[in-house]
Amino acid sequence: MAVSTDQTQKSPARWLVVIVPYLWLALFFIAPFLIILKISLSDTAIAMPPYTPVFSGFAEIGTYLSQLDFENYIFLTEDPLYFDAYLNSLRIAAISTFLLLLIGYPVALAMARAPAGLRPTLLMLVILPFWTSFLIRVYAWIGILKPEGLLTLLLQSIGLYGPDDQVNIFRTDSAVFIGMVYSYLPFMILPLYAALEKMDGTLLEAASDLGCPPWKAFWKITFPLMLPVSITAVILRVIFKLKLADIVINMTAGGPGGATDTVTSFIFREYRERSNVGYGTMLAFVYLVLIILFVTGLLKLASRWNTSGHD
């Protein structure tokens, strides 16, 4: 006997499938998000949890809410140092993402066009750096880029630098960009490669038969088809920017007054050096909101591109 559509929609199993993901998001995203918001509206206290007020029951919820204030947010608008840090973070993220796309696209395309028997080996070479600790890889770049490092020795040995010349890349923005690109490049290559490998090659063959040059075929066919995947790769880059990786790269390879003046570095200093939990949490909360808005905008852009017939 066939089951009606109304009975299927009212089935408890259907509602359970819908409710479980929402409960998961509420428990592991919304609840921590609200906790961070509360701490950002709190004040530092001594010999207590490092912020007040402390929740003491729903009976005093009015008094509890009245003690929360926007002091940290007001101070953020008054001090241009932190506003410049947000702009600096945006600049570094934009430049490093552009470099990742510039490098990742050709690599992914070459992997997808390689012989089928060679692709697993190339894929393994992309994933291979993850088998080594991230800190070890960052400190390896320090040994390469520092003035007396391996890069200086290499350039001196081939005659491009004199015996007393040194490479002045370490502790600069260039070193930070090198670290960012190296650390996040696999996250850019892998989704692009997965999409390029499944792409219908007959489209490019048809374009070639009609006299379309390769660069124009890429711009008119490959690029539009890969744009949603590129947006996904950029989203992965933005999400993983929230990791400790950015702090490690900025604090080790970046120089004072340059790439180290980012939001993540200031958050680290507020927690570690100044023990200002409320202000550091406020910086993290604003940063998280900006990331969410940016990712949401990218997702809507990808969705609009797909629904407009470019899928």
Short description:
This protein is an all-alpha fold and 311 residues long. Helices cover 72% and strands 0% of the residues.
Please explain how this structure is put together.
It is a single chain. With 311 residues, this protein is an all-alpha fold. The protein has one domain: MetI-like (MetI-like fold), CATH 1.10.3720.10. The protein has helices at 5-9, 12-40, 61-66, 71-78, 80-113, 119-127, 134-145, 150-157, 173-198, 201-209, 214-240, 244-253, 263-272, 277-307. Helix 2 (12-40) packs across helix 14 (277-307) and helix 9 runs antiparallel to helix 12 (244-253). The longest helix has 34 residues, at 80-113. The two termini are 39 Å apart.
Strand content: under 5%
Unreliable runs: none
Termini distance?
39 Å
The main β sheet shows up as:
none
Work out the helix count. Answer: 14
How many structural domains can be distinguished in the coordinates? Answer: 1
- Roughly what is the average pLDDT, rounded to an integer? 79
The CATH architecture designation is Orthogonal Bundle
In CATH, the topology is named: MetI-like fold
Based on secondary structure, the structural category is mainly alpha
Classified in CATH, the superfamily is: MetI-like
**Sequence of secondary-structure elements:** HHHHHHHHHHHHHH
What is the radius of gyration? 25 Å
| Share of residues in helices | over 70%
CATH class: Mainly Alpha
